[in-house]
Amino acid sequence: MTLIVQKYGGTSVGSVERIRNVARRIAQSQSLGHQIVVVVSAMSGETNRLIALAHEIQKYPDPRELDVMISTGEQITIALLSMALIEIGVKAKSYTGGQVKILTDDAYTKARILKIDENRLRKDLEDGYIVVVAGFQGVDESGNITTLGRGGSDTTGVALAAVLRAEECQIYTDVDGVYTTDPRIVPEARRLKTITFEEMLEMASLGSKVLQIRSVEFAGKYKVKLRVLSSFQEGGDGTLITFEEDRNMEQAIISGIAFSRDEAKITVLGVPDRPGIAYQILGPVADANIDVDMIIQNIGHDGLTDFSFTVHRHEFVRTMSMLKDKVQSHVGARDVIGDDKTAKVSIVGVGMRSHVGIASKMFRVLAEEGINIQMISTSEIKISVVVDEKYMELAVRALHKSFDLDQIP
Amino acid sequence: MTLIVQKYGGTSVGSVERIRNVARRIAQSQSLGHQIVVVVSAMSGETNRLIALAHEIQKYPDPRELDVMISTGEQITIALLSMALIEIGVKAKSYTGGQVKILTDDAYTKARILKIDENRLRKDLEDGYIVVVAGFQGVDESGNITTLGRGGSDTTGVALAAVLRAEECQIYTDVDGVYTTDPRIVPEARRLKTITFEEMLEMASLGSKVLQIRSVEFAGKYKVKLRVLSSFQEGGDGTLITFEEDRNMEQAIISGIAFSRDEAKITVLGVPDRPGIAYQILGPVADANIDVDMIIQNIGHDGLTDFSFTVHRHEFVRTMSMLKDKVQSHVGARDVIGDDKTAKVSIVGVGMRSHVGIASKMFRVLAEEGINIQMISTSEIKISVVVDEKYMELAVRALHKSFDLDQIP
Predict the structure, then answer these.
(1) Most buried residue, A50, A290, A335, B361, by most Cβ within 10 Å?
(2) Dihedral of the CA atoms B194, B197, B199, B202 (nearest 10)?
(3) What's the ipTM?
(4) What distance in Å separates residue A81's CA from the closest CA in chain B?
């Protein structure tokens, strides 16, 4: 008998009717002979409602008390789902994070899981129960309630799958898998049967927000097979997230095209090319809690160089003025220029590690479309370019076609 | 430094504004040099909202899961109240029943407290924290969440006061104390400075619904001083519920007049006066889950007697038809008659134990007003009569005046 962990997000359990559907789907999985552990989020909107209520009392709610409060969202869902299962004749039992117990550190609102006690769950599973566990929450060593931060329910699912050595951790969501790119931009986009963890990480961080990046890292670390499935469509195998060693040799070199409209590009011009200059520029940015994505510095000329990076578009104005006020004269830069009408387009695939010419093919395709590349950055399994945002969709479509992503490999 | 337990009900914490008020009041008590443990209920309406949600899934919600769900109501309040305290600069920490831990039996939805671990609370109190505990809930030995049933928050307050040997358990409610009778009927009704537990039990069960009867019993058993106070009015000492041995000798003989409009009277006429007849009549009533209040049987004549009792008015029709169908011929009774236009009026006071003539005075007063007494039943500290409901208010007013309850004793 195989053990499967299924995780259902807030939209999947967003109403009584949807909770009933989820119960039916779980019962079906059980009837196929699986032991099932279910992890659920709060009903969609509930966590935000609770946070708003807390903010009526405190502008910056006490983190310990905020966790006591928002953890009730999942607690309600586990009870309702267990009732729905019992109602259709399936033995079920709910557990809060504290009851399991899911031990975390004491970093309220963004705790990390340290250990999970599997004994009680094992016993219930052997007794034929569906075990319904509240995602997103745990307890610290002193028994204080903690939460794992946004997307924490995925992490709970993966962690339970790891501890229980589950066959698979199935993440039910409102899409039916991971696509070669966003089907709204490229209608020919294809659902991937498999994708590697490394690719998934690059896809997720680039805006294909199917899975929380933290849970993907976690799954990779503990070798948990993750599968993304739709909680609304019946049938379908979704997308399995695999380890590279399991990868089919015949698989495509490129798995997908990711993109983001949220990038703004900033360049500090004519800075002295000396050690410590990157820190002098990016230190103040980090201190202001501004996240930096791509960072590029090319070789210098005549003792001067240009230093570029991208930030989220809504941080653009703040970053520009801070650089002009505090950094430009301090580092002796000539000017600070920027552009918030940019987009990032990336091709992702573990195959490119062993294939040369992928980058040049990408650049050729973009050139043929008349798209100017403003910045380039690469990792082992990803090549990203920054382009004028008006060319973003064109770039994605052209690359999707050129790399044959619309063809089954 | 004295330790005080304060309990605030659902109306007292029914909105963000009210929670802020409660926080201010607690801070005030602390500034008088007290250590404070606070017990709170769910915000008014919340428990019913959750129960309704459960009923959307199951007609008869699974009791274990129902408790998981409704216990979130208090969990939200403890967090909000702790935030409100922290916001005004008072150190505060919340605890669910499971965190304390309040150990109960495993009778879901109506569990009984077995034991409370005081260590963690003691430590927080010594560290200067206000400890905010969720009322109404606990955990069984296996860590399953349980609830204590309606009014359970009062019980939590009393139990904590007992375990912590608190100076007082203050129950904050929407009235400012216990009155000699309902001021809506007798404007001269006076707030009692003290009332004994025994009197309070009689008053509570007779419809003066200030305190849950179970918590009063509990307080009596563990010698916890209870005080009823208003959470909306500032100042005022409320009513202290005392033990008889502490009672002021000068206190009035009668403490109050209780009444209930909910009584319906039923008489089984001409039943054979033989052993077992009471059981043959009341057995079927109990089996049908109908609560019986007063029961009266006088001596018989010629081997026959009349057997009377009262039930809640909304059970009247059901009880009558059951008696006629199943009991009358079985026991060989002549007839079953009844009246649901009746009311019960009671005088309550521990003083009547040591004073003769109280009953005769009561009957004289009613006679002078032309009120016919239909049934009489007495206990050591209470005399109850059933009268036509149209005379109820007249009876209450006349008795209140005759026993000088409008005068400070």
Answers:
(1) A50
(2) 140
(3) 0.79
(4) 9
